[in-house]
Design a protein that fits this description.
Elements: H1 3-8, H2 10-21, E1 24-25, H3 26-30, H4 37-49, E2 53-58, E3 61-66, H5 68-104
Antiparallel strand pairs: 1-3, 2-3
Length: 105
């Protein structure tokens, strides 16, 4: 599942935001919602597959933290869009400047 699809769900986005604040156990995450633990586990699995979170075991606990891999993919996409739109806006600016100069003559 792609990063944007994983974050498109409001519950997953909120879970991601909670984990972004700092590592959380499954219990801490479940405590923030009215959903049953299996539902939260499914959302965590989607976030893990999208490489937005990672999990480690500490005894019986499962602790979730941010995974930079998915976040870096988001960052790369945003940077690509920024470059694209900067080019487009620069082209528009040149066009408008040329139009304004030709209109003054």
């Amino acid at each position: 599942m792609d990063t944007f699809a994983a974050l498109a769900d409001p519950t997953r986005l909120r879970i991601f935001e909670l984990i972004a604040e700092g590592e959380k156990t499954v219990g801490e995450i479940v405590g923030q919602f009215s959903f049953k633990p299996p539902t939260i586990s499914q959302h965590l699995q989607v976030l893990k597959q999208a490489r937005l979170v990672r999990v480690r075991a500490e005894g019986q606990k499962r602790i979730y933290s941010m995974d930079d891999t998915g976040f870096k993919e988001l960052e790369m996409w945003i940077n690509q869009q920024r470059v694209h739109w900067n080019r487009q806006l620069d082209s528009l600016e040149r066009h408008l400047d040329a139009k304004a100069k030709s209109g003054k003559k």
